[in-house]
Amino acid sequence: RKPLSAAYFRRIEAVEYAIRQDDGNLPKNMRSADIVLLGISRVQKTPLSTYIAQQFGLRVANCRIVLGTALPPEIYEVNPRRVFALMSHAEDVHKLRRRRQHGSVVVGGDHTEADYATMPYIQEEIRWCEELLARHPEWTPVDTSGISIEEMAEHRILPYLPRCPTPLEAALEALSCNLCIVRVDNNDIDRYAPSDATFDYPPYDTSTPRAAPPAALGGSGPEERLEEETLGAADGWASEMRVMFVSDGLEALIGVPKDELLHQSVAGLLGRLRGPRTEPAAFRGILWALFAGKERTNVVTCSRPGGGDDFVNEVHVAPIRDASGL
Prior knowledge:
Shape: elongated
Number of helices: 12
Protein name: Protein-serine/threonine phosphatase
Low-confidence stretches: 187-235
Order of helices and strands: HEHEEHHEHHEHHEHHHHEE
Mean pLDDT: 78
Distance between the termini: 42 Å
Keywords: Kinase, Nucleotide-binding, Serine/threonine-protein kinase, Transferase
Strand order of the largest sheet: 2-1-3-4
GO molecular function, one term: protein serine/threonine kinase activity
Pfam family, one: Kinase-PPPase
Helix content: 25-40%
Radius of gyration: 28 Å
CATH topology of the largest domain: Rossmann fold
InterPro entries: Kinase-pyrophosphorylase (IPR005177), PAS-like_dom_sf (IPR035965)
CATH architecture of the largest domain: 3-Layer(aba) Sandwich
Structural class: alpha/beta
Number of strands: 8
């Protein structure tokens, strides 16, 4: 018999947690939840909680939003990125409440249990929920109308959970590094012609020099062509080295949002930092270190984009290789 895995027991524990934390029970435990689902009655909080727990081993608590009733204060102690508010069309809620109404129900305000499944009360409760979300924009709204539990979980909740950084990202962020990670595709670079023997390489081992930029890029020689690439003036080999990760420190240092830096070429990134006092040779050294897969440190005078002030930065290039050594 195949032994039971740790993942199996984690899912069992998560399901038990979801059952204990159903419908706002034991609010003191919400701080330990991976996900907290909020919503009025009959927006599929319980089945969604159970599905996520069973399939993904995540601890899910859910809490009902009731007209005129404050939420448990423990909810405000949960990481808001883990809080999801389930919303649905009034017609869908009306159908479910009429079909499933049984036993005692919870209503708010001056209403009675007879109002629970009526359209006016449902619309009033939805408006109350919308006002609550307007006061807490940090919570993520999820429209549950017309989609399955599986779609809700896999497309509207799980992708928006806080992502754990990789060990490399965590280590670099812990060091408060101002860094980016650049992808260098050896197969793309190696297709270019052999290096020009007259090119003045930066001072490191050149016993097995890498390929030089193609002559088609223009300029009177490899050095001039490299400077053009450094300043972002042409497309070519340097444009294939793409920025894959940007730390919070680098974003704050240069004053450009991460979204504008990710996936652009490293030549474009360096071009943004070029100022009147920037030495082109320093940027050339950085590009050639990336190109050759060598370690190198340069002290560079940069200028913040948009006419910002100059700053001096020490730039260190270090290769990160895969299992095959590329």
